[in-house]
Amino acid sequence: MNTHTLLSVVAADSRAAASPAPRPPLVNVDGIAKHYLLPGLGRSFSVKSVDGVSFAIGQGEVLGLVGESGCGKSTIARLLTRQTTPTSGRVTIADQEIANVKGEELKRLHRTVQLVFQDPFGALDPRMQVGTSMEAPLAQHGIGTRHERRQMVMHMLEEVGLDESFSERYPRQCSGGQLQRVVIGRALLLQPSFLICDEPTSALDASMRTQILNLLTDLKRRHGLTMLMISHDLRVVRHICDRIAVMYLGRIVEIADRDTLFEAPRHPYTRALIAASMLDQTGLYAPEIQLHGELPSPLNPPLGCHFHTRCAHAQAKCSQAEPEFEAASDTHQVRCHFWRELQPEEPAENGSAQNRRNRVN
Ligand SMILES: Nc1ncnc2c1ncn2[C@@H]1O[C@H](COP(=O)(O)OP(=O)(O)O)[C@@H](O)[C@H]1O
Ligand SMILES: [Mg+2]
Q1: Is the shortest distance between the CB of 231 and ligand 1 below 6 Å?
Q2: Roughly what angle, to the nearest 10 degrees, separates helices 130-140 and 146-159?
Q3: What is 3-248's CATH superfamily?
């Protein structure tokens, strides 16, 4: 069996993918929340890890989800894979509300939604050869004969840029980048209709990171994969994603197609994240939009706009009233009282006037 047939996931034109109105949505997340109750002295505390998040992902689309550590990204991944149940809201994948799925349908859901984590060493059994680890889920789902499964594994190793000899290696005989290729290949063998990558490159060094991102971009182009790409780093989502959602303390604060998000961001938090990622790359920065201080505790988020305690543009209203999620255009939504007053050109791409003024010598 050929891996290309194996991976005959909906073919999509990746050039057209920047369109933010998702093609027929495969994934619909509607007002989802996850609040954890923690026992405290005298009373319980509620951690609002995810607090009313909605988005859709079209067939063949890659949505990026970015935000600082602790803002609720992995909780969303767990909600989408039914590893945890929502406090409220619902998730629909391929027209099925996942909370209602049982029996054989649940088994199919576990096959069609695959998750790749940050740590490939933790994802593989150290006592098993890589080929055996890749084959195991195929056997669990009753796919192919033993011989066919071995063939599929060999094709997949090639597909993810490794040679067949890797099937006999143990995880300790591979680098982190090689193992992440194995983990991605193992997920793809099940022909998922939806792939979630949660910080897939965070445990890797810079050159491995680029290689894995190139691999994922290539797989997206070849197979039209529908993906949710989670990262704390905007640079990771920049090249692969069609649209990007920015999260802050359990909520989405801005969502737009990739080019709009980078060229005309409207939320001060998005602008700060862009400035921070450019600072690393170019040594250019705009101090008034840098991010200061720690993320506030989700146990006690600031009143009004959650971001106001770190926002250079905050005014009295920001600490008093929660901003609505407003449409800046048909394809762009933002949760900020003053988004109209923030000029899109200000945060800037490389070499903007703003950045040139603030060049670090
Ligand atoms: N099982 C849990 N019990 C209590 N709090 C949790 C649990 N899981 C996550 N949290 C809290 O929810 C918030 C979001 O966590 P997480 O989704 O892992 O964020 P991210 O992936 O963006 O770093 C954090 O404050 C975290 O401490
Ligand atoms: Mg996480």
Answers
A1: no
A2: 120
A3: P-loop containing nucleotide triphosphate hydrolases (3.40.50.300)
